[in-house]
Amino acid sequence: MNIMDAELKNSILKTGTTILGIVCKDGVVMAADRQVTAGNIVMSKTERKVFLVNDYLLIGGTGIVADIRRVPKFLAAELKLKELRSKTRPSVRQAASLLAAMSYNGIRQPSMIPQQAGFLLGGFNEDGTVELYSIEPAGGVILVENYDANFGSGMPYVLGLLERQYKKDLTIKEGIELAKEAIKSSTQRDLGSGFGIDIFTITKEGIKKVVEQEIVPEYKDQ
Question: Residue ranges of the domains in the chain?
Fold first, then answer.
């Protein structure tokens, strides 16, 4: 690595994050914390990391804040164009493939700062089926059959808990509680995660925000 590459690498603001998706028997639960960091500095305590793409798709991102905010808007526009051309609504799988292609191109096109973000994409199809996909920063796409936290800094803590507590055929209600505990675990141990919890559900009935909590420091006399 030359000096210019090293300086550029060190100048990029990287974010610490916990994003999470859990597949349940009646839908998908997606969750995230709210902290944004740049190195060892907390830049924001109120950042939302899960976004509605449209009325049937939800996306959560980890990585560079600008990319996490930009990609859902571009994805929504591309999916709308695809729908207008084909006269049919793109499936969740097609949306995930399009997002993977965007990620792939984002790191391979000549650029001073390539795209650096990983995503979880969940949604419901017209036939009522619900799917969750993980799109890693290099553009690989995986159908999630149980749970995933992509490459957020809180991933080791989340996956460690879910490895022991996840069970097949969870209900949405159970998935919400499990997601809450997983995010709490990461915010307790991961320096890049904290300050809040947002949890969404995706079912054939639609997308709902079911948990919105703030985590605040508490000081006690001893």
Answer: 17-37+45-203
